[in-house]
Each structure stands twice: as C-alpha cells, then as structure tokens.
Amino acid sequence: MKIDNTLPKVIIILGPTAAGKTDWSLRLARQLDGEIISADSRQIYKKMNIGTAKVEGEWKWNVSWNGLRHSYYVENVAHHMIDFLDPGKSFSAAEFRDRAVKYIKVAHRQGKVPIIAGGTGLYISTLVNNYYIPRVPPNKKLRKSLEEKSLAELMDWLERMDEETAKNIDTKNKRRIIRALEVCMLTGEKFSDQKKQGERMFDFLQIGVDVDRSVLYDRINRRAEKMMQDGLIEEIQALLRQKYSWQLPSMSGVGYRQFQEYFEGKISIEKAIELLKRDTRRFARRQLTWFRRDKDIVWCKSYDEMEARVRDFLNMDPASQMKIHL
User: Fold this and answer.
1) b/e 13-45 (16+ beta carbons within 10 angstroms → b)
2) pLDDT one-digit tens code per residue, 18-37
3) Measured between alpha carbons, how far is 207 from 124 in angstroms, rounded to an integer?
4) Of 177, 194, 211, which one is at a domain's C-terminal end?
5) What is the C-alpha separation between 54 and 227, in angstroms, rounded?
6) Using one digit for the tens of pLDDT, what is the confidence trace for 165-219?
7) Structural domain that includes position 166
8) In angstroms, rounded to a whole number, what is the distance separating the alpha carbons of residues 216 and 255?
9) 284-295 exposure pattern, b = at least 16 Cβ within 10 A, e = fewer
C-alpha cells in the first residue's frame, strides 16, 4: 500500500491478549514522550478492572493547549479510551474511530507521539482504513428476537443477506453477528456495502507483538489464576448487585460470562476457571487470525526490534533524539 509520508505519524502496538502490548506501549511512551490511546473494547468500561486485565492507573487533571484535561494516567503516561464508560452502555467501532482521531490530533498538537495499543481488530481496522460505518441506532425489540436464535441460524441468515460480511465476521461472536443483521434489516442494504473507506488521515506503523504460542498460553493461564487471587469473583458480585445483566455487551465478554453458570449454581468454581482459561486461549487465536490477514503489520519478537522499527519510521537518531522520561 502506498503511503503519503507527509501525513502525521501514528504508532500502533497490537496483538493477542496477554502478548505484552501494555508493557511495550508504556515503555515506548516514556521514551518518546507519547500518549496511549487504548484499542481494547473491554477496557473501556468502568468498574471492570480485574476481568479485563486493565492496567492500574488514576484519573488526574492536567493543563493542555485547549484548557484542562481529565485523563487516566499509568506511570505518568496519559491514557485515553480506557475506564470511561458505564457497563450498562454500548460503544461502537464508529464511536471509537471518531474519538481516536480526536485524541491523535490533540497529541500531535501537544508535541506528543500518539500510540494506539490494543487487541480489538475491528477498532484498529476502522481507524487505519478510515472506515465510515453506518450509525444505525440499536433496536431492542429486534435484538431480543435475534438473541433467541442459535448461532447457526443467525449465520445462515447473514450468509443469505450479506455473504461478504458472513465470510469475514467472527462466527463465535453472537453480538457482532446480531449487529450486522440489525443493520441489514433496518436499512435494507448489505452491511458490507455501507462500510465506506475514506482517504487515509495518518501514516500508521502497525507493530504486532509476536509471542510463541506455548508462551502465550502459559501467560493466559497464569493471568487467569492471578485474576482469581486479585478478586475477580468479588468484582463480578459487585456488578451483579448493581443489576448489570449477563446479556449486556460488557458482561458477555471473556473474563465475565464464564462465571454466569457458577453464579447460577450450575458449575463449580474450578470449572468456571477452566472455562476462563480455555475461552481466553480461543479468543487469542481469533485475534491472531484477524491480524494475520493484514500484511501491513510488522511482527516483532522483542522490544528492541520494535523500537528500532519505530525509530526508523519516525526518522529519529537513536543517539540524540530518543528521550528517556523516567
């Protein structure tokens, strides 16, 4: 793909869950005086910290070029698009794209390097390709009717209504399949025909964190155990006490839905933990399948390799221009 090198530059660090994106992005942000824009569809929610593996931080006010800004800070690095949405609300890829563009532009105005970090492929694809996605409001009655159908029935409908979308969609993600059907039914047009690509706004360097599968699975299993030690059950209990339903997008994600049957008295806690590990591994495989289709992604096995790629992309002299911010 031909890139206009005069466009503002943006770094993207992506990969499967537990690959190490958070560590790489934080380290790079400190070196480059950067700001991080999260591309994680689960870490957007407030009150959901342990099950989403959200990095611990704090909200602080700071002065910017256009006044006061309230940002989430991790190790003195500003983060955006994280810990801001009530779990009872929904958030679309189109909304992510619009907000991410805003934060990228603000970062450039402040002389900061914008770093997108996350594993939600749809979010990243929508931003990189500057997709316009139809803003069709949710229809609760239609969604309820579709929820009652099996995955096989929904996919059969989608294949008949929009074959292209059916080929590319995550066939295990019922919520995303229902959304595609909802758009088709309410507009009378294929979802794939409505997704229009605009002119590229930024020059992106997409870095994929390349981790051996066995190492990745071990990290996933160990992280699940740590989530339990950190109080995941208590976090879910608090959400249920506040009447957040299992049917919500926030509660139906990996890290939460695996415990529904435990809370309903149908399975043991050991079984729920086993499901958490298994489903997280499956989720990581689906993320990798999505990202491997994008030939523009540069896969790096080490931080140093990634840093060298970034320096070259930004035309930076490693001896004189890489600033270390402790």
Assistant:
1) bbbbbbbbbbebbbebbbbbebbbbbbbbbbbb
2) 999 999 999 999 999 999 99
3) 12
4) 194
5) 11
6) 898 888 878 888 998 898 899 888 887 777 778 889 999 999 999 999 999 999 9
7) 140-194
8) 17
9) beebbebbeeee
